[in-house]
Design brief:
Elements: H1 2-38, H2 50-78, H3 85-110, H4 128-155, H5 163-184, H6 195-216, H7 218-221
Helix pairs in contact: 1-2, 1-3, 2-3, 2-6, 3-4, 4-5, 5-6
Length: about 220
């Protein structure tokens, strides 16, 4: 009887870890793909070019969103079992939203243009697609956060107490999404705003978003 109790206590963490691993694999693939765009064929490229700053903006943004998604399953389901139709449906919904977010990370990584090559003809930097997918991912994450906040409140999950952080994360993601959409129109800007300059500006805002993400969500992200 004791053996059965121990197994039951382990089943829920194992179920959560099962989907976490799938999430981690896809996010890891996205980061690996981004690295191949940054250093193709072991060539470091031209230092500090547009591709470098886009990679940095991607990398600095992935970490807190991955952190929050990974923690969300623990916060909501590790201690409280999913009992009943709606609780189980909420769990499946959360898993699919994590995987969709991870897939969007892959699309962002694919959109990082190849760097210019030292000693060769510079490759044209076309970061518009990167900014587009960044904005899409952030807007999708905003929708997930809003729906998740309402769901947590209705189901009275432990995460419902963290809605203050959700509101701030929504504002941060919307802010960076707007910056990315503006950056996507960079050819229409004055000549002194080059593609490289705009990529640095986007990275600066992405860095600020990450810092504020951890400041506002420290209670949720760090048990």
């Amino acid at each position: 009887m004791q053996h059965q109790t121990v197994d039951a206590a382990q089943e829920r963490p194992r179920l959560i870890d099962h989907f976490k691993r799938a999430y981690q694999i896809i996010v890891g693939l996205a980061i690996t793909l981004a690295c191949t765009k940054l250093f193709p064929n072991d060539d470091p490229g031209v230092p500090w070019d547009t591709s470098f700053w886009l990679f940095c903006a991607f990398f600095i943004t992935v970490v807190p969103i991955f952190h929050g998604g990974d923690r969300s399953l623990d916060v909501k389901y590790l201690q409280a079992p999913a009992v009943g139709f709606w609780s189980r449906a909420a769990y499946i919904w959360d898993v699919y939203m994590l995987l969709i977010t991870a897939i969007l990370f892959v699309k962002i990584a694919q959109a990082i243009p190849g760097p210019a090559v030292l000693g060769g003809s510079p490759q044209p930097a076309t970061p518009a697609l990167f900014y587009k997918w960044m904005a899409i991912m952030l807007v999708v994450d905003v929708g997930i956060l809003i729906f998740d906040g309402l769901k947590n409140r209705l189901l009275q999950t432990r995460a419902g107490a963290e809605l203050g952080a959700y509101v701030k994360w929504v504002a941060l993601n919307l802010g960076l999404a707007i910056i990315c959409l503006l950056a996507k129109s960079y050819p229409e800007y004055p000549p002194y705003l080059s593609a490289n300059t705009i990529s640095i500006i986007v990275f600066a805002f992405a860095f600020l978003r990450t810092v504020l993400d951890y400041v506002f969500g420290k209670g949720y992200l760090f048990p």
